[in-house]
Design a protein that fits this description.
Length: 141
């Protein structure tokens, strides 16, 4: 397991941390984000998507569970905040997405912990409001 921690002093730095992680990602990778409401999960994913060559800014899926972007790899952006059950996520095909060739990034990943593959990259963000964010990234062995 390899871990790293960065401090992000602005939304741009949070996004830059996501953009940096994107350079390590390949087909089939899963990135699980945790952190309280408004810590910067979407902001991090915007940078990550940019790093994967996605042109349009990432927006959190609101009315659907999964947004799709096209970059050098397909990016699936899942937000489990409003998810009622694990079955709902299985029904929309989350396991197939995670088993496919794209990169799957998940906000509120603690809500679907049992579905995450062992190779999942963990991103835990702390800090609220104007505070700097602590972004801890843990990669599988
Ligand atoms: N390092 C930072 N310093 C200050 N503000 C930041 C930092 N990173 C992100 N933010 C700001 O925090 C706010 C919340 O960001 P964002 O929407 O990405 O959070 P989130 O974790 O996705 O929230 P939600 O739980 O609602 O999905 C935004 O206004 C964003 O610009
Ligand atoms: Mg969000």
């Amino acid at each position: 397991m390899r871990s790293s921690v960065v401090t992000a002093a602005s939304p741009e730095e949070t996004a830059a941390a996501g953009e940096a992680l994107a350079r390590e990602l390949g087909p089939g990778d899963v990135v699980a984000l945790t952190g309280a409401l408004g810590t910067g999960k979407t902001c991090f994913i915007q940078g990550l998507a940019r790093g994967l060559g996605v042109a349009a800014p990432a927006t959190s899926p609101t009315f659907v569970l999964v947004n799709e972007y096209r970059g050098r790899l397909p990016v699936h952006h899942v937000d489990a905040y409003r998810t009622a059950s694990l079955a709902e996520l299985v029904d929309v095909g989350l396991l197939d997405l995670m088993g496919g060739d794209g990169v799957t990034v998940i906000e509120w990943a603690d809500r679907l912990e049992p579905l995450l593959p062992p190779r999942t990259v963990r991103v835990a963000i702390e800090g609220l409001g104007d505070e700097p964010r602590r972004v801890a990234i843990t990669r599988p062995a």
